[in-house]
Design goal:
single chain; 74 residues; mainly alpha; 4 helices; 0% strand; elongated
């Protein structure tokens, strides 16, 4: 389905730059944003990508606990 939007030129230029930096088309960026608004943001591929990134990180929370002060930056 096609949708027509009215947007000022400055915002459009900035949005196109954000899309370019993310390696996406403006159409794809807007579609993903709207899917997020509709609660469809985390499809299977997104979740696999997220878990892959977590696995690559190599970090560990083993043995680490947080106090209330740690959590609230006190």
């Amino acid at each position: 389905m096609n949708v027509t939007l009215s947007i000022d030129e400055k915002t459009l230029k900035r949005a196109r730059e954000v899309a370019r930096r993310q390696g996406k088309s403006l159409n794809q960026l807007v579609r993903e944003y709207m899917q997020g608004l509709a609660g469809e943001r985390y499809d299977e591929q997104h979740l696999r990508d997220l878990f892959d990134l977590m696995d690559e990180g190599g970090g560990s929370l083993e043995g680490r606990g947080w106090s209330r002060d740690d959590i609230h930056g006190r």
